[in-house]
Amino acid sequence: MQKIKVVIADDHPIVLLGVRELIERDGRFAVVGEAASSSELVRMIKEQGPDIIVTDYNMPSDSVYGDGLKMIEYLIRHFPDLQILVLTMVSNELIISRLHDLGVAGIVQKSQLHLEIQKALNAVSQHRNYKNPSRNSDTVVPNSVGVNERVASLSARELEILRLFVSGMSQRDIALSQNRSAKTISAQKVTAMRKLEVKTDQQLITYCNEAKLFE
Fold first, then answer.
1. Helices (H), the chain
2. Secondary structure of residue 61 in the 3-state scheme
């Protein structure tokens, strides 16, 4: 019986090792490639022709493929037959919904990797989308209606800009990674700050961290 070919991607070697081990416990699957960046991932897909890719959402944005939503959009557009499982620590419902809208086969929280990866692979191998049944719909600061309302007002693109900014990227780097102008990125960041009711970059970072927006 021909094995289902899987390529995995994460910029942490220990995570790659763990994911490989978990996947290969099931004899139906064979990991045929590993990647530590989005550019390596695209190269592996072209070389190995996998059936499934399991990729981290946050990858080094070292190439035109970027990471996050930009990378996923590229993969789905250029490899429409691929089934994509996304590993992430991001729990914001808007980003999760956007990923599903784009057409990913499933999303697995890294905190639940050992419990969920094999269930997700089993579903995807049968060409079924995987929905984590244990996902909590409360994504930021429990019992804080004001915070939830502010976050809900952000667009998926604004959330993506904030995620990259909070991760330490400059507006210029974000613009390059997204193939957009610095002026556009700045305008979206300003709009997001206004929606969150913060006035400085430090307040923005503190807000996102305290709200656990990207955990």
1. 13-23, 38-48, 68-78, 93-102, 113-125, 145-152, 156-166, 171-178, 182-196, 201-210
2. coil
- Return the bridge partners of 109, or none: 88
Which pLDDT score is estimated for 181? Answer: 92
At 137 the pLDDT is 41
Residues 50 and 105 in one domain: yes
Q: Distances from the Cα of 109 to the Cαs of 28, 77, 106, 137, in angstroms?
A: 23, 24, 10, 13
- The first and second tokens of residue 17, run together, are 């090792």
62 assigned to some structural domain: yes
97 and 120 Cβ atoms separated by less than 8 Å: no
What is the Cα–Cα distance from 105 to 86, expressed in whole angstroms? 8
With 0-12 / 13-18 / 19 or more C-beta atoms within 10 angstroms meaning exposed / middle / buried, residue 61 is buried
Low-confidence ranges of the chain (pLDDT < 70): 61-63, 92, 94, 133-146, 215
Residue 58, token pair as written in the block: 């946050």
| Residue 26 sits in the same domain as residue 113 | yes
CA separation, residue 1 to residues 25, 30, 53, 118, 120 (Å): 16, 12, 20, 19, 21
pLDDT at 177: 87
